[in-house]
Amino acid sequence: MKLNVLFLGLSLLLTGCNTVRVAVDYDTSASFESYQTYAFFKPSVDKMEISDLDKKRILHAIDKNLSAKGMTKSKQASLLVHVFTKEEKQVDVFQNNFNWGWGWGWSPWFNGGFFGPSVYARTEGQLYINLVDAQNNQLVWQGKGSARLYPRDNVEKKVARIQKIVDEILAAYPPGEEQ
After folding, report:
1. Where does residue 17 fall: left (phi above 0), alpha (psi -120 to 50 degrees), or beta otherwise?
2. Strand order in the sheet with 118-133
3. How far apart are CA 25 and CA 173, in angstroms?
4. Three-state SS for 6?
5. Domain of 136, in residue numbers
6. Is 106 helix (H, G, I), strand (E, B) or coil?
């Protein structure tokens, strides 16, 4: 029984590593069908505290996604795309106390001893995509994606990971559209 629970927990942990948690909010009074063009808001892009290569990857992924939705990049855009990133260190502590050895014959190797707590550090990144009505400078849609970062990945994996994160965030744009 304990091995089944351990296996289930381990499989959930491993599958959870590749997930992107997404949260979306939007202005219900906005007329999203009227937004057909977009442009990147340069000051928000310049403030992103990531490498220039990763900035390009994020912008390319957003460009690809919005273009696939039938939108056009334009200097006279109806939507301005503001992009922000945030990085946080996450620390997970697992108490590996399986309670083996309680009662007669208790042994420190099976209750705390060699099976004591395990500490794992990981980096989680957050990507915010804000869509602002260019006419009245009002935020109309916001998507946030949180995912684990793998800084040692090769370039192809980084590109694919960024595209996946952007795709999952923008899957909810425009609101009300069947996915």
Report:
1. alpha
2. 20-26, 138-148, 118-133, 79-94, 37-40, 72-73
3. 10
4. helix
5. 20-100+109-170
6. coil
What phi and psi values does residue 19 have, to the nearest 5 degrees? -85, 155
Question: Maximum Cα–Cα distance for the chain, whole Å?
Answer: 78
Neighbours of 37 (CB within 10 A): 15
Please report the pLDDT score of residue 121 as a whole number: 67
- Decide if 179 is inside a domain: no
The answer to whether the beta carbons of residues 141 and 171 sit under 8 Å apart is no
Sites in the chain below the pLDDT cut of 70: 1-18, 90, 94-117, 119-123, 177-179
Q: Is residue 122 part of a domain?
A: yes
Which residues pair with residue 121 across a beta bridge?
91
Domain count, the chain: 1
Could you tell me the pTM of the whole model?
0.73
CATH number at 49 reads: 3.30.160.670
Enumerate the H helices of 17-145 as residue ranges: 42-47, 52-68
